[in-house]
Design brief:
The protein is mostly helical. The protein has helices at residues 2-14, 16-32, 36-49, 54-90, 99-137. The longest helix is centred in the C-terminal third of the chain and has 39 residues, at 99-137. The mean pLDDT is 80.
Length: 146
């Protein structure tokens, strides 16, 4: 098993730009109006030259934002659980056994809605990052601290 995994990990480490190429190629084609294959080739070369910060932009925002959505969903489920439990207790309704599924459904709906916004936000982050990388590649960055 290790004999198979080592070459695969080595290939992915050496050709990491190929994983990023499709996503950034689509954005680059949209920005420049070039064909997809030409855009993929150019953005792949640009990412090879500026790879060190691309890894953080590719993985970190998705992990943080989706983790935040998960935590907000759990907090929302707990809040709904408490509110519905209190309402069921004070009204002596027989819905006390249905509180957990209600809270889970509310958390799921909230997570789906927030995930849509997170997906749009990640697309915006990647487009801004690609514009920054293009500026760095052309040496027109005015502030190196960005």
């Amino acid at each position: 098993m290790a004999g198979i995994m080592v070459p695969c990990i080595t290939f992915l480490a050496q050709n990491y730009h190929l994983l990023l190429s499709t996503r950034f190629a689509t954005i680059y084609a949209a920005i420049t109006g070039k064909g997809f294959c030409e855009a993929a080739h150019e953005v792949s070369d640009i990412l090879k030259r500026n790879l060190q910060t691309s890894i953080a932009v590719w993985a970190f925002p998705k992990m943080v934002l989706h983790g935040t959505v998960f935590c907000i969903g759990l907090v929302w489920a707990a809040l709904i659980f408490i509110v519905v439990s209190l309402i069921a207790e004070f009204t002596s309704a027989s819905t006390s056994s249905n509180v957990a599924p209600i809270a889970a459904c509310c958390a799921l709906v909230l997570a789906v809605i927030l995930s849509l916004f997170v997906s749009m936000f990640i697309d915006i982050i990647e487009a801004i990052y690609l514009c920054y990388i293009l500026d760095v590649d052309m040496n027109i960055v005015t502030s190196a601290e960005v």
